[in-house]
Structure formats: structure tokens, C-alpha cells
Amino acid sequence: MEMIDKSKKTFSVKSFFLRWEVLLLLIFIVYNIIIIFTTPYYLDINNIFDMTFIFTEKGLVALIMAFIIITGNVDLSVASIMGLSSVAMAASYQAGVNIWAAFLIGLLIGTSAGFLNGMIITRLSLPAIIITLATYSFYRGIAYVILGNEAVSGFTKKFSYIGQGYIGNSPVPFPLIIFLIIAVISIIILHRTTFGRMVYAIGLNEKAAFASGIPIKKIKLLLFTLSGFMSGFAGMIITSRIGNTRPNIATGFELEIITIVILGGVMITGGVGNMWGVFISIVLISTIRYGLGFHNVPGQIMLVVTGGLLISSILINNFLKTFVSNRVLKR
Amino acid sequence: MAKKDNNFKKTDTGNSSSLMLKFAGFREMGIFVFLIILVIVISIRSPVFLTFENIYDIGLDTAILAIIAVGEMMVIITRGIDISVGTGLGLSGMVVALILAENWWIPPWLAILMGIAVGAILGSFNGLLIVKGKIPPIIATLGTMSVFRGITFIINFQVAGGQWVSAHNLSDSFKAFARSTFLKIPNLILIAIIIYIIFYYFLNHTVTGRQIYAVGSSPESAKVIGINIDKITFLPYLFTGMLFGMGGVLWVSRYTAAQTDSGTGFEFTVITAVVVGGVAIAGGSGSIFGILLGSIIIGVINNAVHLIRVSPFWKLAIYGFIILLAVIVDKAISRRINKALLERRKI
Amino acid sequence: MKKSLMWLIVGLLCLSIIGSFSLFGCAQEAAEEPAAEEEAAEEPAEEAGGLSIAIVVKNIGNPFFDVIKTGWDEALGELGDESIFRGPEQPTPEGQIEIIESLIAQKVDGFTYVANDPQSLQPICKKAMDAGIAVVGWESGIVPESRHLSVEPASAKDIGVDQVKMLAEMIDYEGQIAILSATATMANQNTWIEYMEEELEKEEYANMELVDIVYGDDVREKSYNEALGLFKTYPELKGIISPTTVGIAATARAITDEELIDQVELTGLGLPSEMAEYVHNGACKEFGLWNPIDLGYLDAYSTHYLATGEITGSPGETFTAGRLGEYTIEEQEGVENGLVYLGGLFTFNIDNIDEWKDKI
Fold it and tell me: What is the CATH number of the domain that holds B273?
């Protein structure tokens, strides 16, 4: 458990249990115990690995989204960028471009879409939520312009490996490995580098960060471009996994991704958050959906459970905090 | 931001010398100019656009959006956000429609009051989570967004066995309500006008209304001067609830059907209208007039994409592009105005 | 004050915990209260004898699929199988893939599905078939490689042609017409529209002109606005075909509101319960649909027989579907596995609408 070591110099049992990630981990364990005892299908190594297919795309984008939300911004256009880059890739493939060149085109389009977001936001100093709300419709709209009512399929076998393949003969999916690598990199960057410190500084107090010489605009531009790139990449993975694409691919993912990040303990107001929390949250949300799936829970209940979980987990945390601080005060 | 607003208002009401400046001091200038340009461009492209019937339709279409935008604006002024408006609208519409289907005697005004009551419950639930449970607004309403939708499904299934409430289940007086007129103005538009007058008065001329701005501009100083922060933070959610409750019933009356998925994605439209209307997402500033313009712009674009005979696949891109343009043009114009005003002050 | 606040929080907390866990709880006993969903479904514990067979719909909360489920549950009750009813919250293929993934993992014996986008579901359906699960598709131009058998309400061509004929009768084979469809990527609507366009090429429709195809995305306010847009851009418009249940009801409303009854005629595919009002007021004089109860019933029987191995899905085989009688699997050009047709399009008008409006 690395996070204990690096948590705080003065370690106390209480503050350990108050840490958001630990709480999430506890929920995760409790949930897993319940689900393991109630369904025989859950503890199957193949099933567990197959489950990861569903969350890798969202997880990848959520990792970058965490950086953006920590700086106090948000990117609502991620799902539309996923759709746009996927469609751009498919259209160029259909036009006879080599599959890997098309793949690069998709990535490039995603990156430029993110770059455009970043440019408008930093140049006009407008809130990110406003600009990405507009590009949320705009990018998705361009995807419709490109493909219309067509769906493109029939990509090469090699391309389908990105989203469907397994490592050798093991049950470990290829996209999972990619996700884990990027997750580790994100954790290191956010928690171990000056860049990570700067990201927190911007979120805590943008003016102070500016005054102390942090290149705010450059960092924001970089993060939004990265978000575009990662959305583009996630778009490629989902295209490969599904084996075809259409303009409305990945619709509605943005709210799911933001939910993951927020459940991971990242404050929407910026400055607070932890990549471990985001990581656990990704796994938690997908195991919940997966586990409830085994009970064939109707979707409507699934909705209530996900919403209830979001609210109640934060209530629990707030309650614990008040409880502990009250006791300390009494003493 | 809020401070600047106040300054503008001073020039506005004070001893302003020229009409021009009075007009320029008006914060929504940018968005207003944009709306006019938009209308001119569209009417060149489509002659039907400026006919009486079409403007009437835009009014009907914009009314529900405009009503809910008032609540959303107040929430955003207090530095919050309410993402549950779309599903809240669906849930309150469904509850009232299910009651109406069994009780045809209920007059439309009572149905609307019932909608407001249901919405008030949902809204205060949001408010309690945020104020008493200390949950950040975006998380609380993101949660209730799914919860409300889930409950809509469950109630619909329990009561009607999964059947939507359709036209033949509703009484004629209720179906006619949204479109029938009073003094030649359709009820739907009339209600929107009344709501706007009430909230204009509330936000600008009552203590509680001004306190909403105060809490949004600076919660710390608001606390220092003795404003009850909890109450002021709670109220906008309650009002939003009441307004989307009302909107839900009007929605059922307008489209004469209550579906389990009514209002899906409506939260995005409402927030867009509010944001295009110049309400600062960081809180503290925003005006009734601005969101009215914002809602009308959305209504005009929605109407125009159907009229200008473009391929259906271009509609969404055009919609997104115009929103983007609106925000940028507004920013550019208000920047100019600010500059001009500052320069004038120097002299 | 402080104390009462704390108690309030404690109360809320307990409520929410109890809330979420009781939901997990009822998840386990799928037959209990909120999950009373599964009206006729057997309790999972009693699955002993029968097979477990699932149905995957486009989205939940859509009354059309709830009616399908009535027939589905009826048939599985007769067969003694366990019924699993699933659908995503939004009509997206991504949600359906997740559901099928979970069905494969719990090793159901067979499932039937209606696709939001058939091509997207192909890899996952292939995976299911490789895992030995019987896969039946219905109603949406399912790709042959991703099912053992397809159950169709009627041939896509008949569905398209019949709607054109109904409208042509209403407007005396003359004038401008438009189509108001669901989303631009819905496979079944697109296939029908292709056949409609093909039919309109014929001599007898020479005076009819298809001026526009618009998409209301199966969202009521959007469909309504699309209809209004059609009236305004084409003042001469004589008729609209709306091959989707939400679209036709929204268009009928728009015609009523704009007082265009008898000026603009409407037909398409709709639910009697939603359309009763408009058949009576004349906004839509006639529309079609197949019997969804029977469709669900036939789906259940064919999936069951496929799962038990009594049929393999190849053309020429016959089977008896309970009260509906005997069905033969028909051949589809260039494809190994076959099709089953439920029958033709059923039309509703002023004479029969009242007996159907409370059923479907």
C-alpha cells in the first residue's frame, strides 16, 4: 500500500480512515464481498478481465479529466471528441488511406480539437465549461456532417487488436495494459513532479499561481490538448472494440467520466484530488455496474444505485469528518 | 464581475448624458447585437422566419426553457449548478400526468400547482443535500439526476405498467391549456412573462433577492454582514425545483404525452441558455434580461435549423457553431464596451 | 442546533445507506418490489428445470418494449424458462454491448435482441455464439453473421411499401410528401426508407414528390419541431410518413396544433394507445404496426428451440410456436441462416382503434 507511505509524514489511524481513497476502497471491498457471495459468475478470472473492456476508454479520459478538474476547469466535449476522431479515422480509412495512417489522422483530429478548446479558453479567458459546452455540440455536429447516416465497419484484423486483443494467450486484454501504463504515468506526474504541483497550485488559487510565475495559460493549453489527444485515443479503442463507427458513438460518456472523477474525490472547485482515488473510482463504478448486471438488475435501478452511491459516499465522508472533529473538540 | 455590473447600473439609472451610452452600459449588449445579426441572417435565408406564426411558435418553444433558466440562473449566481433539471422535469411531469389520467376533473391550474409542489419536494431534496449534507452542488445534482430518472421509470412501471401517458388519457381542457390564449397571448407565454416579472422584482428589489447576489459574489463577506448563507443557498434550488415542476406539467400539456425519457439532455440546453445569457459561471452576476435573451437565442437557432433547408446532418454542427460564436462575440463586444466606459471615466 | 444538524446528517446517511443497500438487496431477489418489473418472471432460484433466456431491448422505459415483454413472458411461462429482461438506459449500442457481455459471463442459454446499431453489436454477438449461446435478432436488419436466426415482423420491403400505399390512398396519389424518421443511424428505419424510395419510383406515384427526409431522433419535442419545420418550409406539403412510434405521435400533435387536419395527411408506424386521440380527430386516419405481443411471443419460442437444439436456424426447418401455430424458416439470399416472418403489417383506423388502444 504505497499510498499510506506517501500520505502524510505524521500518520494517524483516524486521518487514514478519513482519506477519501481509503473510504472508496472500503466500499469497494464491502461491495465485492456481497457480490461474491450472491453470484457464482463474478469470481471468474476471464469474466473479471473481460469486464475491463467496458471501462478502459472512459478510464483513460478520466485520468486526464482529473488533471483538468484539479485546475478548476472541466472539459465537457470529451465524448464528442471521441466521436469526431473515430469518425475522422473511419472516413479516411473508407477513402482508401492505410489503416494506421487513418489511426494517426484520428489522433491528430482529436488532438487539434482539444488544442482548439484550449486556445479559445486561454486566449479569450473564458470559462472552460462554457467553451466546451459549445464544442460539445459543435464537434459532434461535425461528426454527423462527415458520416451522415452511414456506419463504417470492416477494419483490418490488426486494428481490432487495439480494442479487442489479448496479450498472448493470457486472458489479459491489451487495452487494460495501456490503461494501467497511462494510469501509472498519471499518478507519477500528478504526485511526484513539479508539473503536478503546478496543477494543484492553479486549482487552489489561480491568481497566486500566476503571481508566483507559473505559466498558467501554457499549462491549461497543454492539458486541454492532452485531453483531446486522449479522447482521440479512447475513440480509436472504442472503434476497434466495437468494430465499426457512426457519428453518435460514445454519446453521453462525458457525464459518466466526470462522475468517475468526482467520485474519486477530486473537488470540482479545483485544487483537491488524488489520482489513486480516481483510479479506485474507475474500478469501483465498473465493478458495480458489472456486478449488478449479474443480478440482471433493470437499468432503472442501476440508475438509482449509481446516483445514490455518489451522494451517500460523500455524505458518509462528511459525516465521518464532523464526527471526528466533534470528538476532538470535546477533548 | 459583479462590481462592474453595479457600476453599469449606476450609469444606467444615474445622470447618463446620451442614450447611446445608456445603451452601451447595458451588460447584455453583446448578446443582444448578436441576436439581431442572427435574426437578420436567418430571415434573408428563409422568408418564413419572420412571419407572425413562426415567431409565435418560437415563443411557445422557448417558454419552458426560459422558465427553467430563471431557476438555473439563481443557482449559478450562488456559485452552484443544478444538473437535475432535465430529469426533474420528466419526473414531475410524469407524476402529475399519472394523477391527471385518473382524475379528469382536475383543472389545469391545479395541475400546475401540483407540478410546482412535486418540483418543490425534488428541489428541496437537492437543496438539503447541498446545504445540510455539505455536498458540492455538481455532485449532489449529478446524483439526483440519475435518481430522479430511475424513480420516473419505477413510478411509471408501478402505476401504469410501463405505458406512457398519452393524449387519450388526458382531459381536453388540460391538453388545450398550453396553446389556448388569454388576451390573444398563449397561456404558456403568459406564464413565462409572469414568472419573469415576479423574479425580476424578487432579484432586484427584495432583500432576499439581493442577498442571493451577495452570497454569490463573496460568501465570506456575506457571512460577515450576517446573511443566513444556508437559507440563501437553499432557496435557489427550491425555486429551480418549483420551476422545473411547473415546466414538467406545461411540457405534458404542450406535447400531450408524458414519457419516461422526457427532458433527457435538457439540462445541457438550460445551462447553455443561461451561459449564453451572460451569467458568470463563477457566480455573483447575471440578470433576468440576459437569460431571456439567452433562451430566445436558443429558441431561434432551434427553429432556424429546421427552416433553412440544410441537410439534417449539418444541424447539430450549425447549432454548436452558433453557440460558440455567440459566446465569443459577446465576450468581444463586452470587452470593447468596458474599454470605452473606462476611457470615458478617465476624462 | 449543532446537535440537531448532526442528527439530520446521521438520519440522511442511514436512509441513503439503507436505500442503496436495500437496492442491492432487491437486486438479489429480482422478484421483490421495485423489481416487480419481472411480473410474470420466475424467481431465479426456481430456474432448476428450464433454460435461462434473455431479451435485450433498445432502451428501457419504452412502452413498445414493455408490450413485447408481455408476449415474451407469456411464452416463457408456457415453456417454463427463466426470463431476463435487459436494456440500457439510453438507446446506444455501447450500453447493449455491456449487457450482452454480462449475459455471456453468466452463461445464459440464449438471448434475443433488437439492435440500436446492428454492426456495432457484431463482435460481441459473435463472441456469444462462439460461447455456445443461441442468438436471435429481431426487427432491425440484423447482420447475418451476428445471429443464428432472425425474427421479422414482416419483410422490410412490405413494411416500407405498405406505408407508401396507405399515404398514397389518402392524398390521391398527388402532391409533396416528406418522411420523419427516428435517428439517422437506425438501421430498420433506414431500410424501410430505402424501400419507400424504391416504391415511389413507380409509375403510379409519378405525381408524388418526396421533398425531404428529417430525423426527430425519437425525441418528442425534437420530432414535433421537425414537423413544424416541414409545414413551414413546404407550405404545399400533402403528406408525411413517420415510420417510428414517437415521431408519428409528435407529428400528429403538430398537425392538430397547427390546425392542418385534412390538409396534411399522416401515416406510419405507431402505438394505438398513443394514436387513439389522433385517429378520432382525423390527424392520422390510418397507420400500421405489427402485433408486438405476438412478436415477443414468437421471439421467445424461436430462442427457446434454438437453445435446446431443436432447430439450428437453417432455412426449411419448421417449429410450432405455441398458440401462434407452425412457422417455417425462410431463406434469405446469400446467407446460411434464415428468417422467420411473423406476418404482415396490421393497420389501425377509426373502426378498430378503440379495441386496441388500451392493449398496446
Answer: 1.10.3470
